[in-house]
Amino acid sequence: MDKLIVRGGRALDGSVRISGAKNAVLPIMAAALLTDQPLTVRGVPALSDVRTLGAVLSELGVEVGPVEDGTLRLESAGEIGHEAGWDFVRKMRGSVCVLGPLLARLGQARVSLPGGCVFGVRPIDVHLKGFEALGARVRIDHGYIVAEAPSSGLRGSEVFLGTAFGSSVTGTMNVMMAATLARGTTVIQGAACEPEVIDLGRCLQAMGAQIDGLGSPRLEISGVERLGGAEHTVLPDRIEAGTYLVAGAITGGRVRVTGCRPGDLSSLVDRLKQAGFAIERGDDWLEVQPKHFGFRPSPTDCTTQPFPGLPTDLQAQWMALMCRATGVSLITERIYPDRYMHLPELVRMGARIRRQEALAVVEGTERLSGAHVTASDLRASAALVLAALVADGETQVHRVYHIDRGYERIEERLVALGADIERAEDD
Ligand code: EPZ
């Protein structure tokens, strides 16, 4: 197990090229199950989650090539199994995305119920509701989801997939994938509009799927007999891009994120401007302008929302920035009300934060101090690294395997931006 050792004190300066989006590449890999033709995916990030899903898919009988220069070739021409076991799914919830493709391709699927995670229960009721709307029988059996299509196959219908917390990203993805091979037309109301859902939809269209309404809360999918192979380049990771922009802001430095889609980050750019930062933009880059090391942002009030609102996946990073604001900030987590595992770790570094349910009240302080902190979920871990960049002294972030799930070589990229950070064996 590794740790990251960070010595704060330097304003970052430089540019970083953004990798392909983790939350698009995972469902796109699962989409390979929908066809017996080869699917070639470009812009694949070197992440442990990609390797884990690759292992799940090869267990199922998919030929999963090595990732060479960001290119991954998948082919499900042979015998495909229908069961994804507990061992894989517990490692990564994203593997629940194989459910829809397996059900559509084989007429059956047996996938372990994904565990919760550190930020609370993560139900999949709307995934199952969507499959039932398509005619599947779904039951829970000894910790597994068992889904079976009628002998005549799935059939299209209309279904509302909204939840009490807004739309469901992977719920929309799973049901959209299943609907591509269902007889007739499926209408998904309350669909997620995240860029990753659009990217998956575009890959499915390249494979021959008939999908209208991508990016809107209403998707219309006309089922086809079969899908073919395709080549698809994954969109850039807006959460990785946002994380590095905040890294520049928190250190008072200048960071340009290149190869990104500025339009996917409008909510973060809006917050950064409100906090007192100047942001430049180009066609495929964004740059936070330098202040000076020790600059303290203005306090802000923000609420996480489905796209295009402030992403829940940037909430922890935003909290780290607000820990040094010149006043009191409010953060309301509307997607995962318990997503505050980073909060006690930031407090260990001298942050002054109080939580009431989904609301966190952050009283900005002059300084943070380095400490031993423990990573928990992927984005909380990134937030601790950001805080460490601006803290006095040395911080050791333990259990960084959480970070490696979603950030490609984070310490190398931060070193290239001028940070004093290194990876070491955790004792
Ligand atoms: C996706 O998770 C992302 N993961 C998450 O990113 C991201 O935080 C989340 O979307 C929200 O944007 C992947 O794409 C692999 P949801 P997902 O279904 O699809 C509730 C990261 O850090 N809900 O959109 O699992 C749910 O509890 C990860 O990269 C139901 O009630 O999230 C939550 O409150 C973390 N019933 C809200 O909806 C359901 O059946 C949104 O969840 C499904 C979800």
TrEMBL record:
<dbReference type="GO" id="GO:0005737">
    <property type="term" value="C:cytoplasm"/>
</dbReference>
<dbReference type="GO" id="GO:0019277">
    <property type="term" value="P:UDP-N-acetylgalactosamine biosynthetic process"/>
</dbReference>
<feature type="domain" description="Enolpyruvate transferase">
    <location>
        <begin position="6"/>
        <end position="414"/>
    </location>
</feature>
<keyword id="KW-0808">Transferase</keyword>
<dbReference type="GO" id="GO:0009252">
    <property type="term" value="P:peptidoglycan biosynthetic process"/>
</dbReference>
<feature type="binding site">
    <location>
        <position position="313"/>
    </location>
    <ligand>
        <name>UDP-N-acetyl-alpha-D-glucosamine</name>
    </ligand>
</feature>
<keyword id="KW-0131">Cell cycle</keyword>
<comment type="pathway">
    <text>Cell wall biogenesis; peptidoglycan biosynthesis.</text>
</comment>
<dbReference type="GO" id="GO:0008760">
    <property type="term" value="F:UDP-N-acetylglucosamine 1-carboxyvinyltransferase activity"/>
</dbReference>
<keyword id="KW-0963">Cytoplasm</keyword>
<dbReference type="GO" id="GO:0008360">
    <property type="term" value="P:regulation of cell shape"/>
</dbReference>
<keyword id="KW-0132">Cell division</keyword>
<feature type="binding site">
    <location>
        <position position="335"/>
    </location>
    <ligand>
        <name>UDP-N-acetyl-alpha-D-glucosamine</name>
    </ligand>
</feature>
<keyword id="KW-0961">Cell wall biogenesis/degradation</keyword>
<comment type="similarity">
    <text>Belongs to the EPSP synthase family. MurA subfamily.</text>
</comment>
<keyword id="KW-0670">Pyruvate</keyword>
<comment type="function">
    <text>Cell wall formation. Adds enolpyruvyl to UDP-N-acetylglucosamine.</text>
</comment>
<feature type="binding site">
    <location>
        <position position="93"/>
    </location>
    <ligand>
        <name>UDP-N-acetyl-alpha-D-glucosamine</name>
    </ligand>
</feature>
<protein>
    <recommendedName>
        <fullName>UDP-N-acetylglucosamine 1-carboxyvinyltransferase</fullName>
        <ecNumber>2.5.1.7</ecNumber>
    </recommendedName>
</protein>
<keyword id="KW-0573">Peptidoglycan synthesis</keyword>
<dbReference type="GO" id="GO:0051301">
    <property type="term" value="P:cell division"/>
</dbReference>
<feature type="binding site">
    <location>
        <begin position="22"/>
        <end position="23"/>
    </location>
    <ligand>
        <name>phosphoenolpyruvate</name>
    </ligand>
</feature>
<keyword id="KW-0133">Cell shape</keyword>
<dbReference type="InterPro" id="IPR001986">
    <property type="entry name" value="Enolpyruvate_Tfrase_dom"/>
</dbReference>
<dbReference type="InterPro" id="IPR050068">
    <property type="entry name" value="MurA_subfamily"/>
</dbReference>
<dbReference type="InterPro" id="IPR005750">
    <property type="entry name" value="UDP_GlcNAc_COvinyl_MurA"/>
</dbReference>
<dbReference type="Pfam" id="PF00275">
    <property type="entry name" value="EPSP_synthase"/>
</dbReference>
<feature type="active site" description="Proton donor">
    <location>
        <position position="117"/>
    </location>
</feature>
<dbReference type="InterPro" id="IPR013792">
    <property type="entry name" value="RNA3'P_cycl/enolpyr_Trfase_a/b"/>
</dbReference>
<feature type="modified residue" description="2-(S-cysteinyl)pyruvic acid O-phosphothioketal">
    <location>
        <position position="117"/>
    </location>
</feature>
<dbReference type="GO" id="GO:0071555">
    <property type="term" value="P:cell wall organization"/>
</dbReference>
<dbReference type="InterPro" id="IPR036968">
    <property type="entry name" value="Enolpyruvate_Tfrase_sf"/>
</dbReference>
